[in-house]
Amino acid sequence: MRVSKSKCDITFTKNSSSMNSRYRILSLMFLLFSMTFFACEHEPSVTINGNNGGGNGNGNGNNSLPPCDPDTVYFEQDILPLFVSNCTMSGCHNSNSHASGIDLSSYAAVMNSSVLIPGQAWNSDLVDAITTTNPNDIMPPPPMSALPSAQINLIKKWINQGALDLHCDNGCDTTNVTYNGTIKPLLQNKCTGCHNASSAGGGYNLTNYADDANGNLGVQSSALNGSLSGSVHYTGTWSHMPKGGSQLPACELTKIRIWVDAGAPNN
Ligand code: HEC
Asked: CB 232: neighbour CB atoms within 10 A?
C-alpha cells in the first residue's frame, strides 16, 4: 500500500480486494445514497443563497449591500481615509515607501503589516503608535499633530470589531448640504491630515473656513478659486485629491459640487 494515498483510498483498496462484486454494488449504492442524502441536507442553504441572488438580480450591485449600521466601523469608508490622510504620504507608510515595513494604503496591505491583532485594540502596535505620549514614538510624528481622540477611538473600535473589511450602502442625502454639517467633517476625515497649519499641502490649510495666519488658503478660498472642486473631481490641471488615495465616492463629490455651486457659504 502506498503511503502517498489518502486515508480513504487506503481503506477502500483494502476492502475491495476482499470484496465480491455484490458487496461492491451494495457499497456503491450506499455511497450514492449518502451523496444524495448530503445533497438534500445542504439544500436549504443553497436555496437561501439563491434567494439572495434573486435580490441582486432585481437591482444594481449596490442594492445588495446592507444599509450602514451606525455602530459598525467600515474600513474603506471610515478607516482608510484616516490612514491615507495621516500615514501614507511620501516617505511614510505607502506601497512605495512602507517605512518600517508598514504599508497602510489598502486593506490587504494593512492586514499584511503586522500592526494589529483583530479584536484586540489594546494589544495592537498601531494603537500604541497613535496613543503613546513619547514624542519619539508617536505617529504621525511631529510636527504633525496627534490624531484627534474621535479618530483614535474609531480605529480602536474597528480593530475590536475584528478589523474587518465590511461594506454598506449609506444612501446619498444631498439635501441640506452645509459647511459645518457636511463639508467640514468630510474634509476632516479625508484631507486635513495633509492640509493643516503645520503641514499645508500646496499652501492649503483646510481645517478652517478662512485662510490662516500664515497665509495658507482656507476652505472658502479653495472653493472660490476652483481648486477644491477641481482637485476632487479630477478636472482641469489641478492635482488629484486626496493625494495618493482613490477618488472620493460619487455622493461626496456631489455634495462638494452643490456647496461650491451655492457660493461656498459658511453655514
Ligand atoms: C496624503 C496627503 C494629502 C491628502 C490626503 C490630501 N491632500 Fe491635497 N495636497 C497634498 C499636497 C502634498 C499638495 C500639493 C500639491 C501636490 O503635491 O500635488 C496638495 C494640494 C492640494 C490642492 C491644490 C491643488 C493644486 O493643483 O494646486 C487642493 C485644492 C487640495 N490639495 C485639496 C485636497 C482635498 C479637498 C483633499 C481631501 C479630499 C486633499 N487635498 C487630500 C496632499 C494631500
From this structure: 22
Ligand 1 proximity of 242 Cβ (cutoff 6 Å): yes
Mutate to test the pocket of ligand 1, among 239, 246, 251, 260 (most ligand atoms within 8 A of CB): 239
Quick check: CB of 104 below 6 Å from ligand 1?
no
Rounded to the nearest angstrom, the distance between the alpha carbon of 241 and the centre of ligand 1 is 5
Is the overall model pTM greater than 0.90, yes or no? no
CA of 140 to the centre of ligand 1 (A): 18
From the list 103, 107, 83, the residue with the least C-alpha distance to 93 is 103
194 lines ligand 1 (CB under 6 A): yes
- Ligand 1 centroid to Cα of residue 172, in Å, is 24
**Contact predicate 218/205, CB 8 Å:** yes
pLDDT by 10s per residue, the chain, length 267: 444 333 333 333 334 444 455 555 455 455 444 444 443 333 333 323 323 333 333 333 445 788 899 999 999 889 998 898 888 877 888 888 888 889 998 899 999 999 999 999 999 999 999 999 998 889 988 888 899 999 999 999 999 999 999 999 878 889 999 999 999 999 999 999 999 999 999 999 999 999 999 999 999 999 999 999 999 999 889 999 999 888 998 899 999 999 999 999 999
Distances (CA, A) of 238 to 10, 89, 136, 233: 69, 18, 36, 9
